[in-house]
Records
---
Amino acid sequence: MNPSRRALAEQLQLYFICGTPNTKDVLGTVETALQCGVTCFQFREKGKEALYGDKKEAMARALQTLCRSYDVPFIINDDVALAERIDADGVHIGQDDTEAAHVRARIGPDKWLGVSVHTLEEAAAAIDHADYVGIGPVYPTKSKEDAGAVNGTTLIRQVRDMYRELPIVGIGGILPEHVPMIRQDGADGVAVISAIASAPDVAMATRRFACL
Ligand code: TZP
Ligand code: MG
């Protein structure tokens, strides 16, 4: 694997995703998670109680400052304009968002672009533009209503067989005990919302993932 891909893959080991609808105290939760070993963070502000406009931007900036203080990449879900405005480290998009080629053209070569894929065809279409792909839902999830069919690690294995060097994160319903198998089947890391954001003890939950 080339050195920059290897570095990126390592940075994806424990990828925490969170927004204000996922926890009562998003700043406190994210700071604890950063202290306890998350290696990448995505601000995903979605759903009924999501912030918009200036409030969303203020929250993004506060979370970005926290991530910088822990030297952890700060990625924004979907909102390319916000990512550009605040100079985020990257953007993550799904299949229903702006096309990967278009987002890459906007953010340039130096920012990270992550793309969620659910089929080999989507993976094939993403690889020319994406720095990494998210594959899931590996297990059932309550954090995304339209997450699609649960596919275990089948697609992770297929994408890994086809693209040996592509950084991959598994996502969807992932608990610490699932991590060894997901890695063994080809993912570089796991992306997690509820197992950290809804944990009664965020520090302990994060450490359980981080020590794997
Ligand atoms: N994309 C596929 S599953 C999912 C997203 C954003 C939600 C993951 O959340 P959780 O709580 O870790 O299942
Ligand atoms: Mg999206």
---
Amino acid sequence: MSDLPELWKKLSEGESKSLLKKHCTKEVYEKLKDKKSKLGGTLADCIRSGALNLNSGVGVYACDPEGYEVFKELLDPVIMDYHKVDKVEHPPCDFGPQDKLGFDPLDATGEFIVSTRVRVGRSHEGYPFPPVSTDEQRKDMENKTIAALNTLEGELKGKYYSLETMTPEENQQLIDDHFMFKNDDKMLGDAGGYNGWPKARGIFFNDNKTFLCWINEEDHLRFISMQKGGDVGEVYKRLVSAIKQLEKKLTFAYSKRHGYLTFCPTNLGTTLRASVHIKVPKLAKNEEVLNKICADNKLQPRGIHGEHTESVGGVYDISNKRRLGLTEYQAMQEMYNGIKEIIQAEKNAK
Ligand code: CIR
């Protein structure tokens, strides 16, 4: 039997500041409660995490790519509210002119930027998201992805490391080096993100560990390009080159309205998060100024151990906040220009 009535009771009777609580009104609930997507996704799959975790900021995940339309009376308002747009629409993918991106090194002396990372999420077309996915489907997706990744050449050529077979020591080393994902996010776990863990999970990386792919973490696929220092252009170009090669082998879930479809509605559109680990000890003493620059430039500051963590030693993880309603190139430019301003402010600070 579905756990939907119980989830609804928790949500409707509980106190919560989440977007789920705000937009899942009784009327919306009544309209959607008996709907089902072709892959079997239900409203319960979309609201489970937020109903079980009233401290969620968003609280909603999609059950599968089609869920964004089947449950749009809930998802559209959540998307518009989170992404601060008044319509769910998205321009076609545009990575910008790769030969003249205009991303000159931001920090030539290496004083501020510790490392740079750009990631995108992708979903396999025709497969559900974690709460609806079976172990078999996850395995299928893993195999498909490995086959595609194994065709990469040159700098991107690498190897797949399965979470099922790596030793705990290898796993810990990869976590410590900020390469590997973990299963410690309760909200994601309650959304079904760790179902069947560690089956069909793993990580692919090239010899230099500058290109990585996570398989069956929050999204079916996360492509990541990263390296030490602040050469944003080099990091971005590597990622774009990988995506272009991989999309010849794999078909990704995409909608004209939403762009690339991801499990969490916060990542829709470009799905792009471009971040730096940046050392700004002076601004760290005055977080108000830092937060204002971030807000003005549509950037999101986090601690370096991921979302909802504190800064350590004046080092922050700062990234673009907007992912929907702009192109990949524009999202990159927002991050680049904002970080430039932060470095200037740190230089000017007493
Ligand atoms: C929340 O609602 O607060 C969580 N479900 C996280 C939302 C955004 N973060 C994410 O997807 N990693």
